[in-house]
Amino acid sequence: MAALVKCRALLQPVRSQINVISGVCRSDSVLHAFLTKRVPHCVRLASSDVKSGDDLIVRYLDGDDSGIVVLGINRPQSKNAISKNLVTMMSEALESLKKDNKVRTVVLCSMVPGIFCAGADLKERAKMQQSEVGPFVTKARTLITELGTLPMPTIAAIDGAALGGGLEMALACDIRVAASSAKMGLVETKLAIIPGAGGTQRLPRTVGVSVAKELIFAARVLSGAEAKSLGLVNHALEQNESGDAAYLRALDLAREFIPQGPIAIRMAKLAINQGIEVDLKTGLAIEEACYAQVIPTKDRLEGLQAFKEKRPPRFKGE
């Protein structure tokens, strides 16, 4: 009973999201500019679509892809390295997304061919005072934690190198898709530091403790195909001529999620994420509490009615 009470307290913020359908805060100029434009391919944007200085491009897809949001990292001059400005822009975007119940899936990708994210911006880091480094790493860690706790599914599309903090960002996503030629690794020990944005915690939870230690101790860089064999990524594909094979596969996965009940998916994600951190008994109580959230929804009744009438359901997230 105590575990169930704890679970219900945990679910209170999610319950409020279910009851209130809130729009995205679109004060950010990037969100405004790209709200109604559709992404054909993550790396195929006309130069007029990308503003100078926009380190993050946020795209809300429309039509049949409505509900999919694409976050495109766009720092070609720095191999998408994680800078102060990128952390700020991503934090603002995630804050908007987590309040928007109309968002079904978030795809994180790169706007720069051949690179996902090279990790921390070491040139910027070199200019920091020693007293600034710790607070910046804390902000980056908080950002990646926020990415990991978004209520809707998240997919990382790794079409190029994902190193250090770049891989930590991908590890915070629910699903990872990579080109077989993409390179990835937690390479911080080469710089006499350790992964500082969740890598020491999320990598062992993904590939196992012993394998994670080997990879981190050796600062080993894996190909997408090797990462697939270790379970680090869900899918590894041959790269295409456009350089966006992982993005296109991620988009296909997102399209598989869209027809399903959005509240049910959010509750399933919460049950899984919270459940794996506790013992089985507590995990089952979490599942029970999450299941209780879907029982009074209109979507559940719509699912039953659609089954009875032998038609596709029309879920509204209510």
TrEMBL record:
Q: Where in the cell is it found?
A: Mitochondrion
CDD domains documented for this protein: crotonase-like
Official protein name in the record: Methylglutaconyl-CoA hydratase, mitochondrial
Which Gene Ontology BP annotations are present?
Answer: fatty acid beta-oxidation
Q: Which organism is it from?
A: Carassius auratus (Goldfish)
**Keywords for this protein:** Acetylation, Lyase, Mitochondrion, Transit peptide
Return the similarity comment: Belongs to the enoyl-CoA hydratase/isomerase family.
In the UniProt record, the signal sequence range is none
GO cellular component entries: mitochondrion
Q: Name one GO molecular function term.
A: enoyl-CoA hydratase activity
